[in-house]
Amino acid sequence: xxxxxxxxxxxxxxxxxVFSSSFTNHxxxxxxxxxxxxxxxxSTNSELTDWVIEDLEDDNQSITSADPIKAGEGDTLxxxxxxxxxxxxxxxxxxxxxxxxxNDTTINERNDGSYNIDDGFYPIYLLLGRNGWGTGVHPTTRxxxxxxxxxxxxxxxxxxxxxxxxxxxxxSLHMGASRCVGVDxxxxxxxxxxxxxxxxxxxxxxxxxxxxxxEVLPYDVCPPRGVDVCVANILVGQLVRPxxxxxxxxxxxxxxxxxxxxxxxxQVDALKGAYGGSIEWLDDQYAELSADExxxxxxxxxxxxxxxxxxxxxxxxxxxxxxxxxxxxxLAVS
Length: 334
Prior knowledge:
The chain is an alpha/beta fold.
């Protein structure tokens, strides 16, 4: 017998009480630049559970660092920022929150706040981080950013599945989202995302919550209705897994928007099939982009990563998603 939504929500609430713990900590973000070590202090409300972040780093080694043009997993950004949609992306040390060491004489330039909304873009500052993928130089990230800058409405709740650096959540908050939930299988990515959110001023009032994929339960991300928008920029091998399909569909409200990328054009039909009849695909918002059309892509990767696609859909109203509940058991053991 398949349990009702009410039963699932009760089970989800009980499991959340066991596996999730909210705590307030004072994060000291260690950022390094040639010859210099800096610290950014940011008070943040963390939703990461202890087992997720245990033993990730110690006092002598941080998983994040800062640079004026390097970000993510070593991507190279233009010195004057990478403009995509309504945002412009910079390396972390360009942030007004970045703290220079006043005693170090090797620094000749300080951020004077010139990179801000005055030029028509919302700035996004990103740290270098292990497993902190996503800076805008890959075609899929650019496709998602361009769509989010137009799709997010004031008050929306976003599920950022495969959040990586947190760049899509930061952009969505700039666009008026009330809250973002970032999900990733990599603990280091979740830590990097939280620090990037703090660096961009979105660390207060629970505006961003990070969860490991094993903590995603049906109807639990934004009960009782579900999130308004879900974006998942993940390779197709994960996007078509029944467990991930179930995790996304059960946590997206009826009428909610779904943005999928990380896929090649030839994989679109298979991806549509994996989501069955629960999603109405909006073909007028489908898009493709090649590396040679994406600023700083080839420069960052050293090769042409080819052509990628973005698929947009809307969850059907009244279709129901009880058939996905059994698939969540796969997520628990995968």
